[in-house]
Amino acid sequence: MISLLRPIVKGITGRKRKGKGFSLKELEAVNLSIEKAKRLKISIDKKRRSAHEENINILKDFIKSDKNV
Prior knowledge:
The protein is mostly helical. Helices cover 36% and strands 9% of the residues.
């Protein structure tokens, strides 16, 4: 199963687009480990260092809606 949960990232020009995966800081902000994120099929981008509030809210909503978390 491929995850449809994708983060919003800002490119060099400042334009928003869908990113490769959530940053480690964003996962940490919602108390989600890398292992648990992989089990939930959440894409992770270890290269990203930023944490966008939009993406943190996306993860929080996903965790609330998923009964298995």
